[in-house]
Amino acid sequence: MKNNTRESGWEGVTVNSTELRERIGAAMKGAATLVIKNAHVVNVFTREVTLADVAVYEDTIIGVGEYSCDNEYDAKGVYLCPGFIDAHVHIESSMVTPNSFARVVLPHGTTAIIADPHEIANVCGTEGIWAMYKMSNMMPLWVYFMMPSCVPATPFDNTGARILADDMRQLKQKSRMLGLGEVMDYVSTTRCEESMLEKLVLFEDMRIDGHAPLLSGNALNAYCVAGPSTDHECSCFDEVLEKLRAGMSILIRVGSAANGVREMLTEIADRGLPTDNMMFCTDDKHLENTLREGHINCIARLAVECGIAPVDAVRMASYNAARAYGLKRQGAIAPGYRATMVLFDNLRDFNVVDVFAMGRRYEDTACDIGHILPADVLNTINCAPVSARDLSLRRDVLGANARADGLFPVIRTIPGQLVTELKYERLRFEDGEFAADERFNKLAVIERHHATGNVGVGVVEGLQLKDGAICASVAHDSHNIVVVGDNDEDMLLAVESLVECGGGFAVVHRGIVLARLPLPIAGLMTDAPVEEVLRKQRALVDAAKLLGAPDESDPLVLLSFLALPVIPNVRLTDEGLIDVGKTEYIYKNKAKGE
Amino acid sequence: MKNNTRESGWEGVTVNSTELRERIGAAMKGAATLVIKNAHVVNVFTREVTLADVAVYEDTIIGVGEYSCDNEYDAKGVYLCPGFIDAHVHIESSMVTPNSFARVVLPHGTTAIIADPHEIANVCGTEGIWAMYKMSNMMPLWVYFMMPSCVPATPFDNTGARILADDMRQLKQKSRMLGLGEVMDYVSTTRCEESMLEKLVLFEDMRIDGHAPLLSGNALNAYCVAGPSTDHECSCFDEVLEKLRAGMSILIRVGSAANGVREMLTEIADRGLPTDNMMFCTDDKHLENTLREGHINCIARLAVECGIAPVDAVRMASYNAARAYGLKRQGAIAPGYRATMVLFDNLRDFNVVDVFAMGRRYEDTACDIGHILPADVLNTINCAPVSARDLSLRRDVLGANARADGLFPVIRTIPGQLVTELKYERLRFEDGEFAADERFNKLAVIERHHATGNVGVGVVEGLQLKDGAICASVAHDSHNIVVVGDNDEDMLLAVESLVECGGGFAVVHRGIVLARLPLPIAGLMTDAPVEEVLRKQRALVDAAKLLGAPDESDPLVLLSFLALPVIPNVRLTDEGLIDVGKTEYIYKNKAKGE
Fold it and tell me: Quick check: B383 and B446 in contact, CB under 8 A?
């Protein structure tokens, strides 16, 4: 039975009067199950830092002052902060399940995240969101959700699912669902497309995340009027200032992307801009980088380095996000708040001494939850059989808009960037078929959700693969299968190898699978251990380099973005080659059925 | 059919995609229906004050910058602030309906209030709350609600209704209902009484207002753990500091009560305490005082006088309250926010130049709504016939706990205070009946909700009435009929006169009704014009003074609190005389049925 009543409870934990009675009673008596002694406690409300004990009863803080109990932890005078919060992140980009993700970020002091399951939603629709919701229940990491707002992200995306406002109603009622996720399609929004307006109206009573790089003036005003009230895409201080003035909460992002962050933080500090509507997020960050340099704590460190007062950096990393997203029991060390806290060596380096989650000292084993993987998100690769014929790229197709000079359109990658260039080049053909080589690789995008048989084929310059192919089912945002190589045999083997394991990444060289990372969950994630994932990722990159992939870019990441029709300037979809600026096809490949 | 789905929309205004489309389009084009030109605009997000124009489309702000349109208002350089918000108020205490109340506060710049209909709920139960909700719909004043949490306020109160958690479920879903109202019964809360815990659990996912004067230490911690997260009862700076540290939002109150406010504000300013969790409220404030000195703007004035930065005072008066209570479109001048703004001469005196509400310059006639008065809240006086016999106070009853020295218990009022003293005095009796006189008046509390015939009778010293009686149906919190006088005849006439008009206040002298204020709505409010109410109130006070009531206290207010069994030290209910400290009856009058 459909239930449209909003779930109650402490953001996902249903509390009953018996539990509440126990907590109140424990606070009245000062009867703790854990006391953290002698910590410099950061109070986000008064901005004070005072030496005190913190009393915890089960998963609730019951007091700050002088306490003792049988279970004491001596903080030895170091700094106790509320657990840090990542205000915007896509778990799927880590390629691991929520509990593996938790295992990586918790030791860096991140105890809550606000996740937008946009990637899995593009593959599995609302069932994918439900799956993420279930897989992240009752963990030492608090996982909250924003409803993916743009599935598919553009009209050009042939995704596994399309999510309309009506599909969102039931999930909206879940207590860990905080609002509508990043409205990245700001064009539809400011152009008032009906299906987008319906979503904005549905979520008008909740929070709505924005995503509006460089939007300004009237267009920004219109976007704010539409509903989005946060932004994580600022790349310079002036953009921060304009959006803050317009009432947006600013999410300072340091993840895979971190454009202009140092300049922004320095200006914010120098001008004494209020930081109470600013917080931190990673958006996407490689697990390897998180393991090496930290997570939200490394943004706090950067903020202090740029001149932000340490206590304000702590507020930005915790309380400000909790308040902006309405998490009333998160982000502070005070009676009634959740006992998720982190001890740092100092408020400059933010090196973690210890983490407290669920009312006890965090240990790695706390993440051994063993959630059952919902069947809905397994075996999601559903593509028609692929043969050499499907990879054919005939001179007349490629030349549909051929120029008088006999040159043909080519995607050129730019070292170290995700942006591509559209170039026209002289290509080699054999019997009217494009003949790939080391300079001009063949790129194919194979529809894999509904077995339509759609295959887009194009030419890419810059990957420089020789005698091999790379294949991926992680291909933003539609996550069709993308394969690139200099010969059809290796490309077909790479695809076959990927289909066999439910998706992931594979590198093939002369008929041999050199490296493979299976991602059986939606073709995006795996429940394999993090160490194994990282090892296989490194093996994939090494193998790709062996084929000739240049050093400047991660070839896996580059491949994952070649089919995303929102990044300039030219992309390949399962239907053909798109000029992103003009939002029109340069040529369309024939669909299989035609 | 009961509908348990949370109402959606912009806090009470259901928006549809057509309206949203219009607003977005207007913002895109900068096409305003009103432009306020040349104002010093206060930006609560950046703390900047800049000379600019504000563009409004219908009831929505669509931009701040340079604008023009056919309908321009020249602000001539004075200061434009977001409309001010009263974060906690009981409309019923004004004795007028919500639209009359609006007419008084709007000209002082208060454009939104958070009302707790605790008084009418004690008379009419949830039907009273529904009535207030309906009577405050679609007004130029935004009226939000908190659900009265303590009806009745104590086990001693025989009220018109009892509201349990289950009774709250449907009203909780209304979009202007923001949470659970002031949990004044902090004793039941920290003692974990089941019926209170059930309400706290029900509202765990919303805001819960506190009311905990002088609560401190473990008891305060326990109270915070239970759920309340605001407090409007602080009377000194140390109390502010302790509650702020514990995570409570502090509501600085200047209404009928304003204990220690100047000291608190001065210390907050001197110590540079963050004010982002502080806001303003009146709780109860006489209309006459509001008309004379202002409303929330007079608290802002006081704050600046005490050293708070003017922009912070504006934030406290607007944005901070909106944020604390989750009003996402209130409290700021920015695109998408509601066009409720106020122009002040400067940010020191906060004298109102003009008010903008519903997207246009506010005029008094905007409050002429003419809501239909719901029948549920009319004709609420339901008491058994009262005769001289009911007012009898026999020596044996009064002497139930008589002391060996032959002295009898008396309520003594203290000039200028609501607190009373329990005294033992030598009294005069005739035929075993207490004989009232000018010094020792007789006080009676007549149950008026369920015609139980309960009448509590006692002796009060300090009102000094001679040859007359005063009667009221406004008697916190149970709002039974309270009557005081020196002779039974005048007391009976006063009661009769009040019952006849559905409740209110009356003063009788030697068989003549000298003055009367009918309050036909729940015996608490009237839809008569404000001017008439004020005139009749003055006439009542003058008449009471004529009978001998002392100058130090407002005799009507004093009478209204003599039956409230939560204020020290001794009170009379419809069952008998209570020692508030011991929470036990000193004596009980026989109930009529006995």
Answer: yes
